[in-house]
Structure formats: C-alpha cells, structure tokens
Specification:
The structure holds two protein chains of two kinds. Chain A contains seven helices and seven strands; from the N terminus they run E-H-H-H-E-H-E-H-E-E-E-E-H-H. By secondary structure, chain A is of the alpha/beta class. Chain A has one domain: Aconitase, domain 4 (Alpha-Beta Barrel). In chain A, strands 4-3-2-1-5-6-7 form a seven-stranded mixed beta sheet. Chain B is globular. By secondary structure, chain B is an alpha/beta fold. In chain B, strand 3, helix 3 and strand 4 form a beta-alpha-beta unit. The relative contact order of chain B is 0.14. Classes of the chains: A alpha/beta, B alpha/beta.
Chain lengths: 162, 417
C-alpha cells in the first residue's frame, strides 16, 4: 500500500520536460541528473517532493524521446508512482521496466496536494482528501509480472527470459 | 479476415498467428542504442548478468547525439561504448558517421524484420517495411542479449494518400498535416500503415521522413509496403538481396482509415511547443527567425540538401539569421559535396556541422538563446528541446527552412521558387 501527496501536472508532459536534453552529460551520473527532474515544468520539484509522493498528470504523459532516464529520475526523486489519464507508449513501458508503477485513471478527480492511497495489487486508487475511489486500467499480465519483480532486470535475473 | 502489415510481420517473427491485441514474443532482427541511451543499456546488461550478445552483427552502438563530444562526461560515455564494442563484438558507428536512423536505413534495416532502437525515432526504418519501434535502454539491452522481446500486436490505422504534391509541398508537409489531424497522442500504441497513389510515387527519402515522424502522433510504428522503389534503394546500398515483397492483405482490419489528398496540401509548419500545433506556413509569415537548422534523421538526406541548395543558390542568408546544416550521414555529406550542394550552401552563409544529430537534442552545436526562435527541419519542438526552455522551435520542410533563412522570417517557399 502506497500513501502520499499528489503533485499535479497537465497534459503532454514530454521527456524533455522530465529530463531535459541539456543535462545529457549527466546521464551516467543519475543522482545529479535526478536533481533536475521536471524542472522545466515545475521549478524546484525535487526540493518539494517527499519520498512516497505521486506525480499526477493528464493525457499523454512522457511523450517524446525513448530516454529511460525520464522514468529513472522520477523514481530517484522519491516518487512512488505516476498516475495519468494516458501515457505515451515508450514511457509506459520504461516505467514498468525500472519498477516505477504507472497507473492509468481519471486524474481529473485528483487535485494538487490531495492525499492518495494506492493498492497496487488490487489496482485501486483512493483519494483520501475527497473520499473517492478511482478505478485503474489493468496492466497486461507480462507487465504486471515485471512490475511485481521490481522491473525488467530483476525479472530477467529470476526467469532468465520472457 | 486478412492481416495488416504489422500483423503479417509480427506473425512471421513470432512463430504464431499474430492478431491486434495479442501479446507475443518476437524475434528481434536488429537492436541498437545511441550515445544517450547506450551507457544505461550497458549498465543494465551488466546488472542482468547477460553479457553475451545474441547476434553481435545485428547489435549496434551509435555515437551520434553528442558527437563529437562536447564534454568530458560524454567523452567518457563514448569510451564506455567503444570498449564494450571491442569486448563483445557488437557493431559501432563512431563520431561523424551519421545519425543512427539514417545509418540503419542505409546499411542495416531489412524488410520484414523486427527492429528495436533505444531511440524513439527508430520508427524510421518502417519505410523499408521493417516493424521498427523505439524502446528504452533496458528493453533494448535485453533484446540484444536474448534476441527477442515481448510486444503487444498493435491495431492499425491506414493512411491513404491520393494525388501528388504541388510545387513547394513535400513529405514533411504531409506528415505535419497528418500529425495535426491525429494529435500528439492520436495514434498511441497504433501502427500507421501508409498506402495510396502518392505513397507509391514517393522516393525512399520521402518515406523515411514520414515514417520517422509516426511517433509524433504516438504511434508504435509507421509502415510502408515494399515495392520497386524499396528494391532500387536496397540495390543502391548493395543490399538488394534483403528485399522482400510486403503488403497488407486487401481485407485487413483497420481501426481507422484516414484519407489525405496530397494535391490539397500547402507548406505546413509546427508551432512551439508541440508537434501537433500545426499551421500553414503562410499564416505565420513574418515571424522572425534567429536560427535555421537543416538536417536530422527527418530531413538531413541528399534530396533535402538539394532542395535547400536550389532555393539558396546565388542568395545569402539574412544577416540576422544563422543557418546550420548537418547532413544525416557521411555518405550524404560526400554525395552533397560531389553534387555541389555543400559549396552552394556555404556560399549562402551556412555553417556546416558534422554528420550526426546536430542541435536537435540541445546537447551541442547550436543551442538557442533566450527568446530566440528556430526554424528546424527536425521532428520535435518541445519546450527545452534545443537546450533552452526559453526558446521557440518551429518545424518545417527544408524548402520552408531555406526560404526563411533568406528572408529572416517564416516564409512560404513558393514565394522564392
């Protein structure tokens, strides 16, 4: 069970917003790279977010580049899960591969600062602030298995293959 | 029910009957990373314990995004990639050889195979009838090691293009128009399959431009049937034997069919800060441009440089507008030199950058200043993309770029043709 505060973002947050190309030279220094997470859309995000909080976005979260660093730095910033109305394909897969839960639900029913509780096993999001429950889109089985192992690398280490 | 091109290719590569919505394990014919995604892929490979590469001849590391290296950190990343290539036997394309997608098209992609690249514009090879898609570092690392991946077979949209382009209108205008119509997430998870008279008449370079930008509507891949044009291209690259005839079944099931009349299109442009923010070039006439960039995996090929050189021939760039040119590969550069295009472009005031990604990703070679606007032939104009969140990026065809460089403002190329 995950519990934390919602940081609300809009539609079409690109991987350039999440992990700007001008920090390309920091891609092999992930702790430094993570200090710039989402700074082009929310300056100072990394100093405001607490471990266990959630990124809550609108449509097409993570569009653009395939840079997996975008999912990695969100996780390293302490974010426990991403919730969005929809997610771009590559980001969605990357998030699962690095063990960052990404849940598709009606985020219009979440306001910035709301307290949320997430039950991953049962695909349930509760908005504790408004007292509502949000249905969550289901993962394909293969993604659920990867997520349950904590990402693709632990999954492959355990199973050897797909 | 017949099969779409995506279903056919994935059936061939999964040993089963692939239908839209199925989860399959597919054989990966080619897997590649670039210098921005490669170091993480190698770290993940090491972490996984799978350091043996399934087929080193079909695994490639490209040094193109930050090449030549602008910093110590990136030079060290390049060392990491070179050392891995030496140790593992995988292929490496080093600084100056060109953009990964152009080199994949020229030398590696085969019709009918599954191609995974750790770069979103890996969809470019769909123009050759390969199921080419972008994934992250970990997925591609595992595909390199195992020679396979899991995929969800996508539903498909058929994009039926009739008619012919009028003067001053190009493949770039068509794909920008389509993205404007679909929206930046209008084709998320889908395969775009191109067909129709205009598509049959397109050169390979035009097909690459269109397939390259399929991802800007969210698509998983953008596929072209193969034909004589494909065969001729592969022959010209000494790879004619890899040709396979591929087309969707006439009764394939498409989730949507979108028709476009190429003859009705006008020069089209994408406005800051999203690719689907489309306008006609003439509607933005007069917008001041500080930098014009012609190049990238979208529009850095020989015909793109030819169009630009024709418009700029005997003219100068506007004194307040910088003009940067980056050929997509060293072969493109050599051919452009032989054809005289490079001489013409330099005489018009252009700065020639080495073959590679150039300023597209904001790493080096042409980052924008605060408040500056750039007209680029690239595929993406997100806030911060070219190194500065306070800058503005417009996307257009090489003709629009060249005309705008002369006038110093966004200019409909038909005015100068």
């Amino acid at each position: 069970m995950l519990r934390g505060k919602a940081f609300k973002f809009g539609d079409n947050i690109s991987t350039d917003h999440i992990c700007p190309g001008r920090y390309f030279h920091l891609r092999s220094n992930l702790p430094e790279l993570a200090k710039h997470t989402l700074e082009d859309v929310e300056p100072g995000f990394c100093t405001m977010v607490n471990p266990g909080d959630f990124v809550v976005a609108g449509l097409n979260f993570g569009l653009g580049s395939s840079r997996e660093h975008a999912a990695v730095v969100i996780k390293m910033a302490g974010v426990a899960a991403v919730l969005a109305k929809s997610a771009a394909r590559i980001f969605y897969r990357n998030a699962v591969n690095v063990g960052l839960p990404i849940l598709i639900c009606d985020t219009d029913r979440i306001n910035d600062g709301d307290e949320l509780e997430i039950d991953l096993a049962n695909s349930l999001v509760k908005n504790l602030t408004s007292g509502t429950e949000l249905p969550v889109g289901k993962f394909p089985d293969v993604m659920l298995s990867i997520l349950e192992e904590g990402g693709l690398i632990p999954y492959i280490k355990k199973h050897g293959s797909f | 029910m017949g099969k779409t091109l995506a279903e056919k290719i994935l059936t061939d590569n999964s040993g089963g009957d692939a239908h839209a919505g199925d989860i399959i394990i597919a054989r990966v014919g080619l897997a590649f990373v670039q210098d921005g995604t490669g170091p993480l892929a190698l770290r993940q490979l090491k972490e996984s314990g799978l350091e043996q590469i399934a087929n080193p001849k079909r695994a490639i590391l490209f040094l193109d995004h930050a090449a030549p290296s602008p910093s110590r950190e990136l030079a060290n990343d390049h060392i990491t990639l070179r050392q891995f290539a030496e140790k593992s036997g995988v292929q490496i394309c080093d600084v100056g050889e060109g953009v990964c997608h152009q080199l994949v098209a020229e030398s590696y992609a085969n019709p009918g195979e599954v191609i995974l690249g750790a770069d979103s514009h890996s969809v470019t090879a769909g123009a050759l009838g390969a199921f080419a898609t972008g994934m992250g570092s970990t997925d591609v690392a595992i595909a390199m090691a195992l020679g396979k991946t899991w995929l969800r077979v996508p539903e498909s949209f058929r994009i039926e293009v009739s008619g012919r382009f009028t003067n001053g209108v190009y493949a770039k205008d068509l794909i920008l128009h389509l993205i404007g119509k679909l929206g930046a997430d209008g084709a998320t998870y889908k395969s775009l399959e191109f067909s129709g008279e205009a598509v049959l008449n397109m050169t390979m370079s035009e097909r690459f431009t269109i397939a390259n930008m399929a991802v800007e509507a969210g698509a998983k891949t953008g596929l072209f049937p193969t034909d004589e044009t494909t065969q001729t291209y592969l022959d010209s690259r000494g790879r004619g034997a890899s040709f396979r005839a591929l087309s969707p079944d006439p009764d394939a099931d498409y989730e949507r069919v979108i028709t476009i009349d190429a003859s009705s299109l006008e020069p089209t442009i994408s406005k800051p800060h999203s690719v689907d923010n489309i306008a006609l070039v003439r509607e933005l006439a007069g917008t001041k441009i500080a930098q014009v960039f012609i190049g990238t995996c979208t529009n850095g090929r020989l015909d793109d440089l030819a169009v630009a050189a024709t418009i700029l021939n005997g003219k100068r760039r506007h004194p307040k507008t910088r003009l940067l040119i980056a050929p997509a590969s060293s072969d493109v550069l050599k051919e452009a030199i032989s054809a005289g295009y490079i001489q013409t472009l330099i005489e018009s005031g252009a700065v020639l950058l080495p073959p590679g990604c150039g300023p597209c990703v904001g790493v080096h070679q042409g980052a924008l200043g605060d408040g500056e606007a750039c007209l680029s032939t690239a595929n993406r104009n997100f806030k911060g993309r070219m190194g500065n969140p306070e800058a503005f990026i417009y996307l257009g065809s090489p003709a629009t770029a060249a005309a705008s460089a002369i006038v110093g403002e966004i200019t409909d190329p038909r005015e100068l043709m």
